[in-house]
Amino acid sequence: MSVEFVITYLGHMTGVPSEAYDDIVDPPEPIGKKLFSKAQRAADRAIRAAKAATQPPPPP
Question: Which pTM value belongs to this model?
Answer without folding.
Answer: 0.43
